[in-house]
Amino acid sequence: MSFREEIFNELVKKGFFNLTEEEKEKRAQEALDSLAKIKSTIPYPEAASEVLRGSGRVNHGFNQN
Amino acid sequence: MDLIKIKPFSLVNEIPQNSIVAFDTSLVWRLYGDKDIEKDPKLKNELNYFVTGIAKRNSAIVLPIKVHEELNILSTAVVLGPKEERKAKLNADRTLMNKPMDLVDQVLTNLSKLPNFVDRPVGNIDQTILENSRRISRDLGLEHGDAVIYNIVKSIPDIDFIATFDADFHFLKDDKLTLYVPGFRYVTIKRDRQKLTENLYLD
Fold first, then answer.
1. CB–CB contact A7 B62 (8 Å)
2. Which residue has the higher pLDDT, B34 or A57?
């Protein structure tokens, strides 16, 4: 079995392909909203730059030119 | 070999059906931790449009194992504070490590609610991955974490895309993978590449 088949078999088990397009979008948006709620609980978000910079992900400025 | 292809998040509809998209750590951080993104509704909407769009394309989201590892490190930093501060806290109370681990659990649980998210980490970090990563770091100046993520993705030919928030991978030469980035990043990468081409022409 290829990696792609393994991955999509997992999504089949998860019920992904039983969802309509609207349900897929709705559930994805609900997950994104849940993730976004975590932000308010993080006390030191600025410390992320220390880690991301160490990994090479240095360009955080949204308006960076 | 050409430079890796780049597309903005807004073109998520060009992802072929049944593709596999690997997220890097910078993108996952924007989903759960980056408070600054809340001040930029346009960017937040772009990110949400991209992630929901992958689901609508019947495509899968995976996290390379290195991203899982970095999430643990990242969560320790953002829960326990800057390095010296957290070392002092942990020396006083080792049970404080439960808090960042709880955060990782919370992040992974919520990522798992994405209907097309694959829960298990993908790939392995072995000697070949490390050797290839060090070589790429030397040859291209790519930092180690990025080089490991890239090599894990390359070790799994069925992964079609890397989605990232930052510009780290854009100077890689790669005929197969495509990089998805935010629109503002797409513009700066295009400009940087144009400059590079002009400089080569002048040389």
1. yes
2. B34
